[in-house]
Amino acid sequence: MVAKKGPNKKPIVSNVLVNKSEGECISGAGKFFYPTGATYEGDWVVVAEVDEGVPATPPPPPGGGAPPHPPLEQMRPNRQRHGKGVYIDGNYQYNGEWKYDKMHGQGCFKYESGASYDGQWNNNVYTGLGTYMWPNGAKYVGGWLENKMHGDGMYKDKDGNSWTGQFFNGIGPGLIMEIQ
Fold it and tell me: What pLDDT, in 10s, does the model give residues 89-140?
């Protein structure tokens, strides 16, 4: 049974499987329909306290562009995305792991522009190893720290030229160009 969208400020949930877990949490799986038109299908958990001060929005793409609007930062329910799931808001999509309503773990985010990031997340931030693809075909594969290319990595431009080496805080001083 699928619930219809209504004027209320909370997401509507359908196809719910509820599992009782230890402590004060209840978890399950189902599909959320947000008043904005966004959907989430996957695992969730109900928690006793909600951190409403941190919006659940992805970082902006490197080089500019606007990220999607946060789904419901002023009206976040106690039921939070937690586990594996797919969140779709217009032409933005995240498919991956969640931890208490934040992208956390392994996941792939596709931007409206056609750009994408596939890699590790820590509390809605690119952190760890990942691959960012620009719409023009350029890509970066390597380490990330706080949404910036950081650590060992390889950048390949749209023409196929590659640079490898250490990136620091989003830039690559001393990179080596690979001759093909």
Answer: 999 999 999 999 999 999 999 999 999 999 999 999 999 999 999 999 999 9
Examine residue 35 and state whether it is found in any structural domain, yes or no.
Answer: yes
Q: Is residue 139 part of a domain?
A: no
Chain centroid offset of residue 116 CA: 10
**Domain range holding 97?**
11-49+79-110
In this structure, which amino acid lies at residue 148?
A: K
pLDDT by residue (tens digit) across 24-48? Answer: 458 889 998 988 999 999 999 887 6
Q: Tell me the pairing of strands 139-145 and 176-178.
A: unpaired
Q: Is residue 133 part of a domain?
A: no
The total number of structural domains in the chain stands at 1
d(CA 86, CA 108): 10
To the question of pTM greater than 0.85 for the whole model, the response is: no
How far apart are alpha carbons 94 and 135 in whole angstroms?
17
- Tokens at 130, concatenated: 């990942």
**Beta carbons of 15 and 32 less than 8 angstroms apart:** no
For residue 103, being part of any structural domain is answered with yes
